[in-house]
Amino acid sequence: MLKGKKAVIFDLDGTLIDSLGIWSAVDELLATSLGRPDLAADPVTLARLREDALVRHALEPNPYVGFCADLAAFCGSPLPGEEVHRERYHISRALLKSDVRLKPGAAAFVKTLSERGFKLAVATTTKRANIDIYETVNPHIAPELAFSSVFDAILTRENVSRIKPDPEVYHLALETLGVRADEALVFEDSLPGLRAAHAAGIQTVVVRDPWSEADRARLLEEADAHVDSLCDAPEICGFTRS
Predict the structure, then answer these.
(1) What's the rounded Cα separation, in Å, for the pair 23 and 17?
(2) Is the pLDDT of residue 241 over 70?
């Protein structure tokens, strides 16, 4: 799949790092603090609430504030979205520092691509502060993958006005790397991410993640290729296993 390609662009959460379960844990704690422990015990419903809210508020300055406002209303809380969002951020800090890990095969695959001369980028709509935590204080990630050293571009929520499935972050990645859409390959895990990359005209490989299982059929139908993990990525890219 890398024939004629000059660049590889990665989503972050659920693709390079195993973090989506952490965010579900954060939102479970948040729902409990808002008076709905029953919702905290139903992570599938909570995840769907989050995904639907992010799409609904995608054009707002911070869609996560919109999600927090919706969650508060769903829980019957009078708290404004901004206040709930601040609490969500506070809850997340400790978990991001200690519990998030790289997805299997991620570090080795990224290093292989770098050694072979591909331009590399992260295209995510998470905050840059989260990546700073991963590469400086997270003991599971920092020793394995130095984001700032390996990637030619790291594009985050601060760099765009709209989140996925809007293709803005992928258009920006192409521009930053100086490549055309047909010269790049994307690795994504979610349906909004896949559709964002395709809207930018980029071929996309879907990496299986348990938090996207509800969309599995559509992901398989729409993706250009798919792998169960990044351990399998070298093979579909035509690299010889060592």
Answers:
(1) 12
(2) no
Three-state DSSP at 177 gives helix
Q: What share of the chain is helix, strand, coil (3-state, %, to 5)?
A: 55, 10, 35
User: What is 5-18+100-235's CATH number?
Assistant: 3.40.50.1000
The CA distance from 141 to 15, in Å, is: 14
List of residues 6+ apart from 166 with CB closer than 8 A: 58, 160, 196, 199
- In which residue are the tokens 């990645």 written? 173
Q: Are 236 and 112 in contact (CB under 8 A)?
A: no
Please report, for the chain, the start and end positions of each structural domain, with discontinuous segments joined by +. Answer: 5-18+100-235, 20-97
Q: What is the three-class DSSP state of 99?
A: coil
Give tens-digit pLDDT for 135-187.
999 999 999 999 999 999 999 999 999 889 999 999 999 999 999 999 999 99
- pTM value is 0.87
Phi/psi at 161 (5° precision): -100, -15
8-state DSSP, 211: G
Where helices occur in the chain by DSSP H, the ranges are 20-33, 37-40, 43-56, 63-74, 81-98, 106-115, 128-136, 147-150, 168-177, 191-199, 216-222, 233-236
Place of tokens 């896949």: 194
The secondary structure of residue 1, as a DSSP letter, is: -
